[in-house]
Design brief:
InterPro entries: FPG_cat, FPG_N, H2TH_FPG, Ribosomal_uS13-like_H2TH, Znf_DNA_glyclase/AP_lyase
Biased composition (Basic and acidic residues): 93-108
Number of domains: 2
Pfam families: Fapy_DNA_glyco (PF01149), H2TH (PF06831)
Oligomer: single chain
Number of helices: 8
Domain FPG-type: 287-322
CATH topology of the largest domain: N-terminal domain of MutM-like DNA repair proteins
Strand order of the largest sheet: 1-3-4-5-10
Largest sheet: 5 strands, antiparallel
Distance between the termini: 28 Å
Strand content: 15-25%
Helix content: 25-40%
Domain Formamidopyrimidine-DNA glycosylase catalytic: 2-89
Order of helices and strands: HEEHEEEEEEEEHHHHHHEE
Shape: globular
CATH class of the largest domain: Alpha Beta
Radius of gyration: 20 Å
DNA sequence: CATCCATGCAGAA
DNA sequence: TCTGCCTGGATGG
């Protein structure tokens, strides 16, 4: 269930752990044996992301390209020199979760100040295989489960990729072709212009345009639902009727939400005030996503509905979004 | 146990 | 618009 924030966290983690280091690579599952052999023993120079795509520059000029799709995830494990063991991507077993980054302090008022999970480095966090890294003096990588498409490893730790839609080695030119198909990524500080220019010329609903990775990269179903609610926009509004100013604001707000997601390791769209005053209690992270039939945090009426748009669930408040 | 479902997307129809 | 990829948690019997 990875949206752009997860891929940027993943890129950061892979870069922290493997960047500039010689890595071992293998494909226990067998579907990336050739690629793994080409990576094995080379330096992983740098890991980076654009939208929902992860890239890693490999010594010699090739580029590892990973797309997690709907099911993909990477679990990390290792000794203390690893930032924090965690799993990034689709939700997995309890204890394999995305964790806020080490040393990150949540400062913004909208951010969660009540995250129930233990802080990384506290020794309380649960790590892959149920083993706390703090208690492991030397690295002993567990045998990978047989669904692991790619295992990367150094003397300090490992990363296991499962369930990915794409895991391939590209030439630099092939990577450029792929990048050219993607729109600007708010998490890479790309200007909104390309998104605004194209969106203001199409009659397609703004809800569909936001999900189109060639229009803006990294927005998924949750960011779509939540950013449109925050903007008070009906997802079915033709994009060209939204206006350049609101399109720009929408792009920037998606950037805000995604940066928050990078810091927290999960998406929190509601303001602290709205969370605290939620009808029926609880501290919901979302305004509309998967909240159909419940009371809206803003208008407090039971006006949140779920529909389908292009074969994906679409959530909105019938009162607050026009 | 079986079945459904998902924060995604390419390719066929 | 529909199907398939590919994984595991949630749900229901």
């Amino acid at each position: 269930m990875p949206e752009g924030h997860s891929l940027h966290r993943l890129a950061r983690q892979v870069d922290d752990v493997f960047g500039g280091r010689r890595v071992r690579a293998s494909s226990p599952q067998g579907r990336f044996t050739e690629g793994a052999a080409l990576i094995d023993g080379r330096v992983l120079e740098r890991a980076w992301a654009h939208g929902k795509h992860l890239f890693a520059d490999i010594e010699g000029g090739r580029v590892l390209h990973i797309h997690l799709g709907l099911y993909g995830a990477v679990s990390f494990g290792g000794d203390r020199t690893f930032t924090a063991a965690s799993s990034i991507g689709a939700p997995r077993r309890i204890g394999e979760r995305e964790l806020p980054g080490l040393g990150d302090r949540v400062e913004i008022g909208d951010a969660d100040d009540d995250d129930p999970r233990p802080a990384p480095g506290s020794g309380q966090e649960k790590l892959v295989c149920g083993v706390s890294a703090a208690r492991v003096p030397a690295l002993v990588a567990p045998a990978p489960r047989d669904t692991v498409r790619l295992r990367l490893q150094t003397v300090h730790g490992w990363a296991d990729l499962i369930g990915a839609t794409a895991c391939q080695l590209l030439t630099r030119q092939e990577a450029d072709v792929l990048l050219a198909r993607l729109g600007p990524d708010p998490l890479n500080d790309d200007a909104p212009d390309a998104f605004v220019d194209r969106a203001s010329r199409t009659r397609r609903p703004i809800g569909a345009v936001l999900m189109d990775q060639s229009m803006v990269a990294g927005v998924g179903n949750i960011f779509r639902a939540e950013s449109l609610f925050r903007a008070g926009l009906d997802p079915w509004t033709p994009a060209r009727e939204v206006g350049e100013q609101r399109l720009t604001a929408l792009y920037r707000d998606n950037g805000e939400l995604m940066r928050m997601g990078v810091r927290l390791g999960r998406i929190v769209s509601t303001t602290r005030e709205h969370r605290a005053a939620a009808p029926g209690g609880g501290r919901p992270s979302y305004y509309v996503y998967k909240r159909q039939g419940q009371a809206c945090l803003v208008c407090r009426r039971e006006t949140i509905v779920v529909e389908e748009m292009a074969a994906r669930k679409l959530y909105r408040c019938m009162v607050c979004q026009h």
